[in-house]
Amino acid sequence: MTVYELDRPEILARKEGLLGDAVRPTCRRVGVPVDLATADWGEALADAGFRAADGPTCWLVEGLNQYLPETDVLALLDRISALSAPGSRLLTDFVARAFLTAPEAHPLLRLMEGWGAPWHYGTDDPEALLAERGWRAEVRSVAEVGAAMGRPLPGGRELSGWLVEAVR
Ligand SMILES: C[S@@+](CC[C@H](N)C(=O)[O-])C[C@H]1O[C@@H](n2cnc3c(N)ncnc32)[C@H](O)[C@@H]1O
């Protein structure tokens, strides 16, 4: 298995500098430095050796969507979909739309903005978003999953966001 890790150049460089040789992946890992919001990262991924036609891909897009404006999230999903052979899987998460304006969320949203990483995007219908792009999605609220693990969240289902596992 090859894992392609796509992130901003400065983040990959910092990670590699910190980990050095201390941690060795048990698979082949290829860092692909890109800006997922603006770049045509499909080309960079192909240059790194990725071939969609080789078979199904498992995409893990965790903790990213909320940082991008809506147009960039849609473009990201379009690109992922175009690069996914039948049987590919997508594991991702979304912030609930209501969270972005909820008074309870203000302290966190202000903190993120202060760190230069403002949250832009939320949705309440990840299933439709993915169905439009040929994915069959199973969506669970973070509140449900948390409760099942004995970790209830304040704010309830409508503020908690979504964990998504989809198959193409
Ligand atoms: C909350 S972290 C999630 C970490 C991720 N699940 C992982 O295992 O590395 C958000 C990640 O998204 C990356 N990110 C945010 N905006 C990005 C962009 N425009 N292009 C590439 N990466 C971006 C950040 O650099 C950060 O590593």
Task: Please report which band the strand proportion falls in: under 5%, 5-15%, 15-25%, 25-35%, 35-45% or over 45%.
Answer: 15-25%
| Total separate domains | 2
Task: Please tell me the CATH architecture of the largest domain by its name.
Answer: 3-Layer(aba) Sandwich
Rounded mean pLDDT score: 93
In this entry the ligands are: S-adenosylmethionine
State the low-pLDDT regions, or none. none
Helix content: 25-40%
Report the total helices.
7
CATH superfamily of the largest domain: Vaccinia Virus protein VP39
SS elements, strand count: 6
Task: Specify the overall morphology.
Answer: globular
CATH class of the largest domain: Alpha Beta
Q: How far apart are the first and last residues' alpha carbons, in Å?
A: 20 Å
In sequence order, what are the helices and strands, one letter per element? EHEHEHEHHEHHE
Structure description:
The chain is α/β, with parallel strands linked by helices and 168 residues long. It folds into 2 domains: 1-50, no CATH class; 56-167, Vaccinia Virus protein VP39 (Rossmann fold, 3-Layer(aba) Sandwich), CATH 3.40.50.150. Helix content is 34%, strand content 20%. The protein has helices spanning 9-19, 41-47, 70-82, 106-114, 126-131, 142-148, 157-160; strands at residues 2-7, 28-33, 58-61, 89-94, 136-141, 162-167. The longest helix is centred in the middle third of the chain and has 13 residues, at 70-82. The chain starts with a strand and ends with a strand.
